[in-house]
Amino acid sequence: MDTLSVVVDPARARCTRGGNVCAEIMLLAAGKAFPTESWTDFAVVLLSWWVPAIARVAADGRREELRFMEGPYWAEVWCDASGAWRADLVEHRRRQEVLRTLEFDVVKFAHSLMDAADVTLRLCRERDSWSSDADLLDASAKEFRRDTTLMPRSM
Q1: Can you list the alpha helix ranges (DSSP code H) found in the chain?
Q2: Fewest CB atoms within 10 Å of the CB: 90, 95, 126, 137?
Q3: 3-state SS class at 128
């Protein structure tokens, strides 16, 4: 089984005038960064999409896309009939290409997702850059922790 995790590096994060936080955010798939090392994107927005998407997969196994805003990249995530969680890492330039398919430990992934949300929300607070997207991420993360079967109740 491969590993898949969400990584947010706050060290080089910057805030826009509109309250958006741009930070290094990527998926780490079996030790390799996707889309690339040091990928910079709108972390608050991405995570506000990704958290509910993973909750929907957990609820009914449907396929969901974890999209990046900057560039033609996404991960398509689903839970197959056997209960295994899988992801296709996709790039779409001239044509759609699956760069890698992996099976991953969803509990570890869920923890990394919540860690990334916590880091990003802390950045918003510390840099006085709270926005409606941060509200959405905050609410989604709380709901994820409360309702999903992927997180222990103590979290």
Answers
A1: 43-60, 106-126, 132-147
A2: 95
A3: coil
Domain boundaries, the chain: 4-147
CB within 8 A of 143, min separation 6: which ones?
52, 55
pLDDT band at 48 (very low <50, low <70, confident <90, very high): very high
The pair of structure tokens assigned to 10 is 């706050």
Pairing of strands 73-79, 4-15: unpaired
Q: Is the peptide bond before 35 cis (omega within 30 degrees of 0)?
A: yes
- Annotate 36-68 with b (16+ C-beta within 10 A) or e (fewer): eeebbbbbbbbbbbbbbbbbebbeeeeebebbb
Global pTM exceeds 0.85: yes
